[in-house]
Here is the input.
Amino acid sequence: MKSKTLAACVLAAASLSTASFAVQAGDTPQETVQPSNINTRDLKEGDRAPDILMREESAVSDWKKRGLKQPEADSQWARVGDKFVLLKTTNGTILEITPVKK
Here is the structure.
């Protein structure tokens, strides 16, 4: 009698665990994701910048007014907290990091 009860419990547990896998597999991923704030990891020259910094809307357009050098072709300045980051927009490589002048 105990073995039948044990077998029934194991069968019920197994069916519940496979049911949850089926539900997870059927879920479709969201098509849009809200970007978090810039990665909390420390960025340094030579690192790959987060994608959000390579977007045109992240570019610092008044770089000259801010005392920054002119970005070369396929590069732009972006602000990350209290620093300006010069990066290659083609591959996201950080070329230079400069503190914001107060």
